[in-house]
Amino acid sequence: MPPSSRLRPRTRRRRAGLVTAGLAALSTFAAVTGVLPASYSAAAAVCGTANAAQGRPSSASSTENAGTPASAAFDGNTGTRWSSAFSDPQWVQVDLGSSQQICRVALNWETARAQTFKIQVSANGSSWTDATSTVAGVSGTQTLDLAATGRYVRMYGLTRATQYGYSLWEFGVNVVTDGGTLPGGGDLGPNVRIFDPSMSGASIQSTLDTIFKQQESNQFGSQRYALLFKPGTYSGLNAQIGFYTSIAGLGQSPDNVTINGDITVDAGWFNGNATQNFWRSAENLAVVPVNGTDRWAVAQAAPFRRIHVRGGLNLAPNGYGWASGGYIADSKIDGTVGPYSQQQWFTRDSSVGGWTNGVWNMVFSGVVGAPAQSFPNPPYTTLAQSPVTREKPYLYVDSGGAYRVFVPSLRTNSSGASWANGATPGTSIPLTQFYVAKPSDGAATLNQALAQGLNLLFTPGVYHLNQTINVTRPDTVVLGLGYATLIPDGGVVAMNVADVDGVKLAGLLFDAGTVNSPVLLRVGPDGASAGHAANPTSIQDVFFRIGGAGPGSATTSLVVNNHNTIIDHIWAWRADHGAGVGWNSNPADTGLIVNGDNVTAYGLFVEHYKKYEVIWNGQGGRTIFFQNELPYDPPNQASWMNGSTRGYAAYKVADSVTTHEAWGLGSYCNFSTDPSVVAERGFEAPTRSTVKFHDLLTVSLGGVGTIAHVINNTGGAAQGTATVPVNVVSYP
After folding, report:
1. Which region holds residue 447: left if phi is over 0, alpha if psi is between -120 and 50, else beta?
2. What does the longest C-alpha to C-alpha distance in the chain come to?
3. Model confidence over 104-155: pLDDT tens digits?
4. What does the alpha-carbon distance between residue 154 and residue 299 come to, in Å, rounded to a whole number?
5. Which of 249, 250, 281, 419 would you call most buried, defined as having the most Cβ atoms within 10 angstroms of its Cβ?
6. With b meaning 16 or more CB within 10 Å and e meaning fewer, what string describes 416-431?
7. Is the peptide bond before 89 cis (omega within 30 degrees of 0)?
8. Catalytic site residues?
9. Is the pLDDT higher at 494 or at 181?
10. What is the pLDDT confidence band of residue 255, given thresholds at 50, 70 and 90?
11. What is the CA radius of gyration of the chain?
């Protein structure tokens, strides 16, 4: 163990010496279900199912008020609407981006509908042609089949059915496609490198080294890689893992792939500082370290899943420099885990041969061999079991050489790895039931694949979305490889999930676009009401970024409306360094809002948002491990006020909540723009015996700013250059 003087506070920047259910759910857009062929099958032209208007530029003759803009009719959200002034005539229009053969429109009217109207099309947005004769408006969703061509489509309201304006929840447009059925299965693309034991070790090492050389310091680049090893034994390898690189075995069990060598993350590229070792992963293999101990010195968004380390594991960089991770799940470490300089860490449903130390916040849930509960000295928070879990889906090769995706089963009151006593229980899905997406695919294609009944497998790369991806079918799997990155363009919501059972979202990075999106990922529509206890949606290794790679803006990163959802490792980050970073350059209010009841979260990492970082409105919520840094960059105290309160808490439980419980939470401040800024408290919650917090802490990093209280008005001030945590063992 290194000397205590090396356990230094971390901040991530080094500048100036200082080291972030739409319309497709309507019956209008019918889904085609069934097992799909593995190859493309051409057919006659048909009316497509994707909403070509969603997220496209729009305008209107008028709006009732600022809360009912034209764009609300095209945002895929049936809880927002466009409404006009209270007069005739009025219109609302959308630009499809290019001339299209329009075959159908769907108008989801509010009560204030048109009495009579026309659908019109235009090539230029100024000269219009009637695509229908005068039509009588009807309440609810009204579908009209058309045969028209144009780039622009508009509803031209002639007369109103009420004394109010024209009001549309959604305005959908379908266009003609070639009628081809999208293929299931296919190749995994050029950025998935597949190795098998017949290959020479030298050639494998050469590929690993070439990719690492490109990715070692490529923090905000667009390159993405997945390194996949077929079952067998590999010797003499050192797989150094850089940015946006995933290494994984293709066996059904971790021990089906053995690397006699090392899987290494170190911080030489950043002078021994591991606090920026983001966006990389290891999964589903066994490693036998050369010197008996493997090194995995990572920070946020770097999961270590389904790994069997036949030896020890060192979580610190060479030299024990600053480190701030991290996450382990469903793994077995036969030897001792040494976190050393890691300031916080979360381990779930695993087994360890020992654990050497802790700095501020070490949390264990369902970990065999974990140290006993002892917070704050040592700072161990230990839960014997995890209340409800489902392990992440993963790609593997079956005995016949075919690719499949394995979806583990739900577990309750679990401990230890899911594969510790035999194969992980679950369901296997052939790759032919997945649309294998490439970065060239547009959102319309992805939605068509979903409508056909396919799951989605995103191959490594950056995907630009001009409309929302709508996941509407129960049990859909959406799995990303190699940090597949989704960027919403034009301010659309990147992905919506319907109020259905069992959707699995895993392995994705949502990167905000330059036009503000209200939400990056919405799980369940507003007002979702169905219970999903028997088959919840799960969100695993799903990460969010606002700025850093360039200017970005999104009001909220993740909204969870569905009941019983499992959140298993997210990092929501409003960037504090990189490109497009500044108080007004990468605005984002909140990382996570939970509205659903009985939502369970493991491994929440949420940082630098301008208001509440997490808002929990649902009943019966549980969080096991939370790590936060408050925003570095409030220009001054006046710029960062919550009414009359100084700043915003990191974790806010709504006053209306009567049941909530959380374990192992930390919030830090580093108000580097103005060190005189004060946050009134790190955590804020109603004071009730049924709203419980265990093992909380706040820290001022180097005394750069102050957090006046830990939770509500309890706990002393985190301040001063000693960087000593202020701890609260239980509240109330």
Report:
1. alpha
2. 82
3. 999 999 999 999 999 999 999 999 989 988 999 998 999 898 888 899 999 9
4. 49
5. 249
6. bbbbbeeebebeebeb
7. yes
8. 629
9. 494
10. very high
11. 26
**Cis previous bond, 67, omega within 30:** no
Contacts of 463 (CB under 8 A, 6+ apart): 437, 439, 441, 484, 485, 486, 487
Beta bridge partners, 604, equal 570, 626
Query: Which structure tokens are listed for 37?
Result: 């062929």
Q: How many residues does the chain have?
A: 732
Nearest to 409 by CA among 389, 395, 394, 387: 389
Residue 379 corresponds to which tokens in the numbers above? 């700072």
The percentage of the chain sitting over the pLDDT mark of 70, rounded to a whole number, equals 94
**DSSP code at position 516:** P
In the block, tokens 């694949």 appear at 449
CA distance 81 to 406: 40
Instruction: Tokens 């392990």: give the residue.
Output: 391
User: Residue 677 carries which side chain, given as an amino acid letter?
Assistant: V
Q: Which amino acid is at 2?
A: P
**What are 177's two structure tokens?**
């496609």
Helices of type H across 382-442: none
Distance CA 384, CA 373 (A): 10
pLDDT at residue 30 is higher than 90: no
227: which 2 tokens? 């390194």
Q: Which amino acid appears at position 275 of this protein?
A: T
Average pLDDT, the chain: 92
User: Could you check whether the bond before residue 378 is cis, i.e. omega within 30 degrees of 0?
Assistant: yes
Whose tokens are 């968004």? That residue is: 301
Considering only CA atoms, which of 217, 165, 210 is closest in space to residue 191?
A: 210
- How much of the chain is in helix, strand and coil states, percent to nearest 5? 5, 45, 45
Q: DSSP letters of 684-727?
A: E----TTEEEEEEEEEEGGGSSEEEEEETTBS--B-STT---EE
Residue with tokens 């790609």: 395
Cβ neighbours for 619, distance < 8 A, ≥ 6 positions apart: 597, 598, 657, 658, 659, 660
| DSSP symbols for 545-574 | EESBBS---EEEEEEE-STT-EEEEEEEEE
The three-state secondary structure class of 83 is strand
276 sits in the region (left: phi over 0; alpha: psi -120 to 50; else beta) called alpha
Q: With CA atoms as reference, report the closest residue to 470 among 481, 462, 478, 482.
A: 478
Rounded Cα gap, residues 725 and 554, in angstroms: 32
Q: How far is CA 390 from the centre of its chain?
A: 17
Distance (Å) of CA 3 to CA 160, 297, 362, 685: 77, 18, 19, 38
CB 81 within 8 A of CB 169: yes
d(C-alpha 575, C-alpha 548), whole Å: 5
Q: Compute φ and ψ for 401, nearest 5 degrees.
A: 90, 5
- Of the candidates 244, 259, 266, which has an alpha carbon nearest to the alpha carbon of residue 204? 259
The token pair that represents 635 in the structure block? 């220009």
86 class by beta-carbon count within 10 Å (0-12 exposed, 13-18 middle, 19+ buried): middle
122: which 2 tokens? 């235009």
H or E element, residue 154: strand 140-160
pTM attached to this predicted model: 0.81
pLDDT, tens only, 560-579? 999 999 999 999 999 999 99
From 101, 95, 27, select the one nearest 55 (Cα to Cα).
95
Structure confidence by residue, pLDDT tens digits, 201-230: 999 999 999 999 999 999 999 999 999 999
DSSP H or E run through 440: none
